[in-house]
# Entry
Amino acid sequence: MTQQVQDLYDDEAEFKELIDCARMSAANDWEEKFVAGIIDKFERFGRGMYLSDLQHEHLKRISGEE
# Structure
């Protein structure tokens, strides 16, 4: 399922914290590129950005939340 960031996070700062943590915790090229792509989309679309369940899971795993 795909949802907008605004549906998943009430506070924009909470999502920014997740992607910042993921960016700093990325352990390989794939993770770095994945997080960079998410950051690019978020900068363009803000909280209206769509995020799939799988993308959300990857972000949380990379950041160490899971």
Q: What stands out?
A: The CA atoms of residues 29 and 42 lie 20 Å apart.
